[in-house]
Amino acid sequence: MLAEIITIGDEILIGQIVDTNSAWMAEKLNHAGIRVKQISSVSDNREHILAALAEAAARADIILITGGLGPTKDDITKKTLAEYFNVGMVLNDAALENVANIFKKYNRPLLEVNRKQAEVPANCEVILNKNGTAPGMWFNSGGRIYVSMPGVPFEMKYMVEEEVIPKLQAQLKLPVIIHKTILTVGEGESFLAEKIADIEDSLPTHIKLAYLPKLGQVRLRLSADGDDAALLQKEIDLHAAKIIERVRHAVVAEEDIPLEKVVLNLMAKQGLTLSVAESCTGGYISHLITQHAGSSQVFFGGVLSYANQLKQSVLGVKTDTLNDNGAVSEQTVREMVEGALLNFKTDYALAVTGIAGPDGGTPEKPVGTVWIAAANANKTVVKKFTFGNKRLQNIERSAVWAFFMLITLLKEYKK
């Protein structure tokens, strides 16, 4: 069963907003046993939308559409859908009542332009919007299912989870799709591919292996499809175990989670605490950690010590250390991480200092030079890295390696 996702809106095509809806929908559809064939973004243009619908119908069984359902003149999705299906527009009483109740709740007058949001193509089944005024619309036509939903993410997400996917599952016989993701750090995609080539070659035709590289990381994703969920899971687990055993030194997680979440899970399980001392990463490590709910169980905080004065006053880095070795040095990062441990009274600490770029480098310390330290009360590990000359990439790579060093240290010591 194949699906296509069409997002409508000039704001996507000019880069004003990022299309996060498609990625979210694709994940939910895949878990339900529906493969996404293509994702397209089109402008608020009648001809463009009509062409995209016709092309999608030639490729997919299910077409999901988001965007263009607002009350303003540039929102033309409903009228274009009516033209595509060659039907008129009708006022839907349930949709009108939903709109009226929303405006009544906020003590706002119901304008004619808002009333028109309850008008829908005559051949659709309305999906009531519990979080907004624009109704969703379900069409069965020509052996295809079309679903049009608002582009506002929290409105669309409710419809997909509570209405659309349950309805698809009820109407269609869907296969089982199972994924198993292995997160690796520190080895390149080509190295991993060479290392596990024979395992990949031995996979049955219904199991595929994908390499998903990111700065400093590669996710290895095994995907299987079929009718027997238990059998598929058993097969996936068997092949995953072979891969994990072969590249165990690089494996940090056997599930699809971010690297910093691996750290949080490991530390929470052992009742350990963490602090950080950041310089060139500018708080990026702290941001990655604190975006996850429950991070306060592990993460105490830290210091963004960009200036040498803060390295001295907050972390206790010695003046002689800075004068003799500079801020970007093994000696400085070692004193930073040990100062964080001492002053913030945590079980573990991370410290990073470097030259993110694009300027500030010297022949002895070029742009991309970064020193990273991970420490607990018994051991301090320090490593030097020489990345490239791209500032944001250097910051991201620094965070990846800091977490990887911490994970390695966590595995060596148990509280």
Give a description of the structure.
Residues 4-171 form the MoaB/Mog domain. It comes from Mucilaginibacter pankratovii. It holds the Pfam family CinA. InterPro entries: CinA (IPR050101), CinA-like_C (IPR036653), CinA_C (IPR008136), CinA_KH (IPR041424), Competence-induced_CinA (IPR008135), MoaB/Mog-like_dom_sf (IPR036425), MoaB/Mog_dom (IPR001453). This is CinA-like protein. The chain is an alpha/beta fold. Helices cover 42% and strands 25% of the residues. It has 16 helices and 17 strands. The chain has helices spanning 10-13, 21-31, 46-59, 77-85, 93-105, 112-115, 153-171, 189-195, 197-201, 229-246, 259-270, 284-290, 308-313, 319-325, 330-344, 391-412; strands spanning 2-8, 35-42, 62-66, 89-91, 119-121, 125-127, 136-141, 144-149, 176-185, 207-214, 217-226, 251-253, 274-278, 299-304, 348-354, 369-376, 380-386. Strand 7 (136-141) and strand 8 (144-149) form a beta hairpin.
